[in-house]
């Protein structure tokens, strides 16, 4: 992509940026409610339309929503009046939310590196060997930030906060990798009576 070209976003990135479920984003693209570039990519105008889609979906039919989004594409104002002033749409809040989400996603991308020499190419936090999807998974399971930071001291609070954002925008592809020990027998086995195990 050339520097002067506007950025484009995948449906997964758009879902993260607009806080919509991925299914809702794909639905809006499939029904052509929101404008796309190419087959399924969205530009900033498409993201704003998606942000408004959540607010307008219960009030207007898809055809009218398309009209609204087309009218918004031609306007740079913060408040847009349609239908002779009968309908006013304030774009300040969606634009603020989107700008904040874009900053977080950009920062998450800066903090993550993918190198075939490190953890087999799994995305890890820069300067560590800690996989981003592992941290996101711990957060999704309800693990507190304090516990994650205690377990992985090279991480920062910002990394832990942004891990779920990165993982949702860039989900793992394909089947999970097999661990190296997957087909190997255990190195040793020990049998102990339950009463002899000290749980203190």
UniProtKB/TrEMBL annotation:
Signal peptide: none
Gene3D superfamilies in alphabetical order: Winged helix-like DNA-binding domain superfamily/Winged helix DNA-binding domain
Superkingdom of source: Bacteria
Chain spans, region Disordered: 174-200
Full protein name: Uncharacterized protein (DUF433 family)
Organism: Nitrospirillum amazonense
């Amino acid at each position: 992509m050339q520097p002067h070209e506007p950025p484009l976003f995948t449906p997964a990135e758009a879902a993260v940026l607009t806080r919509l479920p991925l299914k809702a984003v794909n639905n809006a693209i499939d029904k052509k409610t929101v404008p796309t570039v190419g087959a399924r990519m969205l530009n900033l105008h498409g993201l704003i339309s998606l942000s408004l889609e959540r607010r307008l979906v219960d009030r207007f039919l898809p055809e009218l929503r398309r009209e609204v989004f087309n009218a918004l594409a031609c306007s740079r104002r913060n408040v847009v009046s349609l239908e002779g002033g009968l309908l006013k749409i304030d774009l300040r809040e969606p634009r603020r939310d989107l700008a904040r989400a874009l900053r977080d996603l950009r920062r998450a991308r800066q903090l993550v590196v993918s190198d075939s020499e490190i953890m087999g190419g799994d995305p890890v936090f820069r300067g560590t060997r800690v996989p981003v999807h592992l941290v996101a998974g711990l957060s999704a399971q309800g693990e507190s930030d304090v516990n994650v930071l205690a377990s992985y001291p090279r991480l920062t609070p910002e990394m832990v906060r942004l891990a779920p954002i990165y993982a949702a925008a860039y989900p793992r592809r394909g089947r999970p990798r097999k661990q190296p020990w997957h087909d190997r027998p255990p190195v040793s086995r020990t049998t102990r009576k339950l009463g002899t195990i000290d749980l203190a």
